[in-house]
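Office hours follow-up: a student asked to see two folded examples consecutively, so here they are.
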Amino acid sequence: MSSEKYIGLDVHQATISVAVMDSTGKLIMESILENKASTILEFLAGLRGPLSVTFEEGAWAAWKALGFNLTVGGSFDAAFGRAFAWRVLDLNYSHSWVSEVHSISASNGLQLRPRVVLRVK
């Protein structure tokens, strides 16, 4: 079983509602955080394993507290028919404009991993 965690953030002006699910879809944690970069980074630093994060925000979100992130990447697949492929290389680079918190810099990230791809049409 994968140790990857899926984190959903509902961003409001003063707070962020957080839900964390494991790789099976089971809800393992819920929390309400202060809308500050340092609080968000401290929360994420406490989680172990690969993390996938998504967020929803309204027009009043405090963007200065969150910062901005840009991710680019690509992959190379070895296809074994139409439905199955082995993703030999999946490479992503991300850069964010969030300041360092407790000697943790989240400004640059590089992710390299193989995957299995199942295409369903």
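And the second, which I mentioned at the end of office hours:
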Amino acid sequence: MRLPSFVLGLAVVLALSPGCDCDDDAPPPGTTPGMDSGTTTGGDGSITGSLDSPFTVSPGGEVLCGDTPCACDDGMDNDGDGNTDDEDIHCFGPLDDDESSFATGIPGDNEGANGSFECPFDGNSGPGNDNDACCNADPTMNATPNGCDQTGCCEIDANGNGTGEHVRAAGTCDFAPACAAGSTNGCPCSDTAMCDAGQFCVFDDDMAGVGGFCSTCEPCMPDLMCKNPCDCGEMCFSGFERPGCGGTGTCPVGVTECPGGDGDCNAAAGEACVSGCCYASCPAGVTPCTVNADCPTVAHVCVTGCCVLIN
């Protein structure tokens, strides 16, 4: 996670911050902000947003979609595709309540005239706050996940062979199956014309002309000004892990080897042993996490392993 960095947003985070103007900075007509500025307290002690918000915070600090954890943060494979929460390509973060599609459960989110360019990670509808929430140089306040840019152009291992390809996390995009009769999905190609309708020829590791395969995911070029790269040691979008991070005797200059495992690394700096080398899972000053409850306040969310406060 370099500048800028990630975390799926939620406008409830904004609502819990004193003095916050939580509207989407006057979103375009026809869009519905995910959260307004007021908060109320439920009968069970939970903190809720305005009536249009799908999020609540339990007395214990857990962010909920209604009365239960959001589908992308409940530890279950809700859509039965073999991928759970962060590893599911359809999960934009812990505040996404739909593991089966790129919908998030937020009214109007990623739909309509703004759907193709608004940030899908900030927990609200409309592009009004996208620069602050999804293209922020401060890694503690950026909603873009490791491996993605602010529009949802993300690096994923689309065909499961260990390399990453930049594709658009939208529409019918999904991991490619093994090549089989009846469809070109997952089959070799050198051009999109070789693929079935609605599919694209994607090249392994973004290397044009090399290892092409048909995919329901559309290739894309990330916005380098707002992309949050997937770095060694980080948890990245859809479960992708950066290959080529070294090994015993081959760690990059300045990176500590860890033949003895995590104990050889600097725990105070948030380092862990990955491929025989010590890497930090989050930038300096950002709290590592596994779930939202690991974060310092209820105004933070845990996405791709780091606690972030959405502005």
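Two things to take away from it. The mean pLDDT is 80. The chain has two domains: 1-150+226-233+283-311, 151-225.
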